Amino acid sequence: MNEQQLPNLAPELTLNDGRSLPAVGLGTWPLNDAEAESVVGLALELGYRHIDTAMRYENEVGVGRALAASGLPRDEIFVTTKLDGPFQGNDRAVAGLEESLERLGLEHVDLLLMHWPLPSRDLYVDTWRTFERLQAAGKALSIGVSNFKPAHLQRLAAETSVVPAVNQVQLSPYVGRADHVAYHQAHGIVTVSYSPLGKGGALLEDPVVTRIAVALGKTPGQVVLRWHLQSGYVPIPKSSNPERLRQNLEVFDFELSAQQMSEMNSLDQGGGVDADLKGH
Ligand code: A2P
Q1: 0.85 exceeded by the pTM?
Q2: Is 57 among the catalytic positions?
Q3: Above 60 in pLDDT, residue 2?
Q4: What pLDDT score does 1 carry?
């Protein structure tokens, strides 16, 4: 690759364990192995260095193939996977992560997340202790959670010793999650936003978003991603479309004004998936 073709890389955020995380990642749900292989391959060429998958997505093999084919040094790519319900309790996460690593073709992941708290099963505290051991063993360089509500995080804080590096939650201008974000900020937990574009639905046609997009000469998707970044969140948009994939990483050369941020903040409708009632 010559100098003109060097890809644009996202800046990094520091995690509470001292490691760092690229400020934009690529979401891979609901890509299958073949789709993930081609989309992740293109994303790595475009400059994405943060890839988010999960055991449950059933695309870790495809993600792993793209990582291997990229030829990039392992320590230049940040890979997240998640273990869901079948891997909670009784150290089941140990074998679960081993199987994920096998599918990914990796020796370790950069970030291992507990996919859902599943509070009715009451195994997340026990599972977190297993995660702490997996981190100590170097199998997961950082550990975190996903879909945890502040009450679940409080319980981890009271009963275990490692504070999750991140909590990955559904979050967008429509789903603001002020209570989650306040807890994260008070405890040094990085907020990773999934469905950051509102799943590509009405949010991208909202008049507030489209007006700001026109004013800045950017796309609605870029405006929404910029809102995440300026809020301190790490969005992981998914796109299978090469042009949108590129646009979603080109969000570091413009800014929303304080006024535009406040208009975006006013779009919050509350709600979002409730992890006391849902999860797998
Ligand atoms: P596509 O894969 O065809 O680009 P989210 O990450 O919030 O779940 O949103 C993903 C959805 O949004 C996908 O359907 C994706 O479709 C679409 N999408 C991704 N990036 C953009 C963008 N920049 N503008 C419009 N739609 C987008």
Answers
A1: yes
A2: yes
A3: no
A4: 41
